[in-house]
Amino acid sequence: MGFKKITKSLKTDRKRWYDDACGTAFALELIGERWAILIMRELMFGPRRFGELRRDLPGVSANILTQRLGQLEQSRILRKRKLPPPASVQVYELTEWGTEAEELVQMLGRWATRHPDHDPSLPLSAASIMMSFRTMFVPERAGGMDARIGFRLGSDGFVVHIHDGTLDTTRMEPDDVDLLFKGTPSGLAAAVYGGGKFVDLEQAGILSVTGDQQLAEKFVTLFPLPEKLPISDQGT
Q1: What gap in Å lies between CA 110 and CA 227, rounded to an integer?
Q2: Gyration radius from the chain CA atoms
Q3: Engineering a disulfide at 47: which of 24, 93, 101, 174 sits with its beta carbon 3.0 to 4.6 angstroms away?
Q4: What is the model's pTM?
Q5: Half-sphere exposure of 100 (CA within 13 A, CB side)
């Protein structure tokens, strides 16, 4: 028995790149345009205004961002919503189905960081460094840790709760925490992935640590990067 042909009324005007029924091909048609996955990454921790997305994705123009948001909305990956008073501003947020792509974003990140050309010292957003923690977290290294770690990265606040071998991340004011990191996403990445010493980063004005110093030293060891591909494998 063959598949029933999908009628035009059930389709959108989405551009077709591939004449291929594979789900992977269709996924690329949904989110393969430049910036699409990064927009989804920025929305993984909650709704964002247009201006906030522009700020955290500085390489995208307003016109392209508008196009991508429209395409993702058409594909039911995100939706627009107006916040109630007194905010009364429009925000973009992932749909429940869009949020399911977090595992995909994490797998892509982990897979790509194995390439020798990946450079963790490049600029990154607050959502990006938070997503990297969820991606690279090794529960065995945390042991029986039960701690709330706060982050103040510019105007963005997050709280990470590590407990029972899990890592929960919430975009919120970092109050009532055991440890607080304050600075830039790049400064935090330098401590976690670059082996930077807290004293040096504080002197450079890009990261400060308040609270349990032993916890801070332990925290930065929980996210080892995957082993790099041998350089000799390039091109083979």
Answers
A1: 10
A2: 20
A3: 93
A4: 0.89
A5: 6
Residue 187 · residue 206 · CB < 8 Å: yes
The SS3 of residue 148 is strand
What sign results for the dihedral spanned by CA atoms 162, 152, 49, 67? negative
Neighbours of 193 (CB within 10 A): 18
* Residue 87 tokens, joined: 């905010």
Could you list the pLDDT tens digit for every one of the 236 residues in the chain?
Answer: 455 544 444 455 666 778 889 999 999 999 999 999 999 999 999 999 999 999 999 999 999 999 999 999 999 999 999 988 887 899 999 999 999 999 999 999 999 999 999 988 888 999 999 999 999 999 999 999 999 999 999 999 999 999 999 999 999 999 999 999 999 999 999 999 999 999 999 999 999 999 999 999 999 999 999 999 998 755 54
Name the nearest CA neighbour of 191 among 117, 115, 132.
132
